[in-house]
Each structure stands twice: as C-alpha cells, then as structure tokens.
Amino acid sequence: MKLETIITNSKEIFLDARGVSVTVHLWSNCEGVSLQVHGKNGDLPLKMAGALRWEDIDALMVALSAARAA
User: Fold this and answer.
1) Rounded CA gap, 69 and 38, in Å?
2) Which of 18, 50, 62, 66 has an alpha carbon 20 to 30 Å from 7's alpha carbon atom?
3) Mean pLDDT per 10-residue run, the chain (70 residues)?
4) Please, which residues have CB within 8 angstroms of residue 48's CB and are 6 or more apart in sequence?
5) pLDDT reported for residue 56
C-alpha cells in the first residue's frame, strides 16, 4: 500500500449576488475549475455544481450567450 500527500497552491473565488452565491475553485494544474452555485433561500439550496475544463466553459458561455440573444 502506498499513501501520498500532495500540497498544491490553488485559489477559490467567492461571489455573492442577488439571490445567488457562486464558488469557483481553480484546479492546481490550471486546466479548469470546479464550481458550485447556491440559491440564497434559507438553507442555501444547490442549483448547479460541476467540474469543467476551460474549453468546456468557453463552449458553455457561447451557448448561454446565444440562448440569451434568442
């Protein structure tokens, strides 16, 4: 059996907006992020969570922009 501990520097970004709270954790290898979106109703319900590469995020942003413009 092999047990290993790795310590890396990473960043977390927190955003509080009207009715929503967003947490973004940048991956230590800089290839993407993990994110959580919570509503601000009493118990902070989870609205969305995911782990995406930057390419996936770019595609998602384009799709959301197209949906908003439609």
Assistant:
1) 25
2) 50
3) 83 92 92 95 90 97 97
4) 35, 36, 37
5) 97
Task: Fill in the amino acid letter for 68.
Answer: R
CA 33 – CA 64 distance, rounded (Å): 18
C-alpha of 17 from chain center: 15
Confirm if 36 and 49 have CB atoms less than 8 A apart: yes
In angstroms, what CA-CA distances link 16 with 38, 40, 56, 64?
10, 9, 24, 20
Token pair 């595609």: residue = 59
**Distance separating alpha carbons of residues 2 and 42, to the nearest angstrom:** 43
